[in-house]
Design goal:
The chain is built from five helices and seven strands; from the N terminus they run E-E-H-E-E-H-H-E-H-E-E-H. The chain has helices spanning about 15-25, 55-60, 75-90, 115-120, 155-165, and strands at about 1-5, 10, 35-40, 45-50, 95-100, 125-130, 145-150. Helix 1 (about 15-25) packs across helix 5 (about 155-165) and helix 3 packs parallel to helix 4 (about 115-120). It is globular. The chain starts with a strand and ends in a 9-residue tail after the last helix.
Length: about 180
């Protein structure tokens, strides 16, 4: 997803930066509408932006995130996001987690117990993988699915629109 250079400066994957800025900018938000929080995870929880309806705050805070880029900890991220929904969320609100990873093929989030628990609590999980998939040279992902791949920057706008549509649909029903 990125790296920390020799000077200690965080260098994000440009596709991730573009995705987050477009997703936040294009999502209708208000205290009674959608609210977004950001959780950065590597070997643990690196940093966090609380759930907020304030677009300027969220967009400004993205530049201050301090990730360590030391591997993946999707289970801890899903568990922490689930807790945040119940600490700061509205009880009857639709709850969605959009998991961004460096490759959807490496992260089998669907089999993680925390993911199964979140789905049983009614939390929808959408997975976006940035990077190559297995023999993947076309974007995949449709509104009805929860897995999207972004193999290159030129495919980002199409994927971003589809993820935004998927994230803003009504409640999803799960058969767990």
């Amino acid at each position: 997803m990125g790296h920390v250079d020799k000077g200690g400066v965080v260098v994000w994957n440009p596709a991730v930066v573009d995705f987050l800025h477009n997703f936040i900018s294009n999502t209708p938000m208000s205290p009674k509408d959608n609210r977004i929080g950001v959780l950065v995870m590597s070997v643990g929880i690196d940093d966090m932006i609380p759930i907020s309806p304030n677009k300027p705050f969220l967009l400004g805070a993205l530049g201050n995130l301090r990730p360590s880029f030391q591997g993946g900890c999707t289970d801890k991220g899903i568990s922490t996001a689930t807790s945040l929904f119940y600490q700061y969320g509205r009880p009857i609100a639709v709850k969605r987690i959009v998991v961004l990873t460096d490759s959807a093929m490496k992260c089998q989030y669907q089999t993680i117990p925390q993911s199964v628990h979140a789905r049983k609590l009614g939390i929808d999980i959408i997975h976006v993988g940035f990077g190559p998939g297995l023999n993947q040279n076309q974007p995949i992902g449709v509104m009805e699915k929860s897995l999207f791949m972004v193999p290159g920057l030129k495919m980002l706008p199409e994927i971003g629109v589809n993820v935004a549509k998927r994230a803003c649909i009504g409640k999803c029903n799960y058969a767990c």
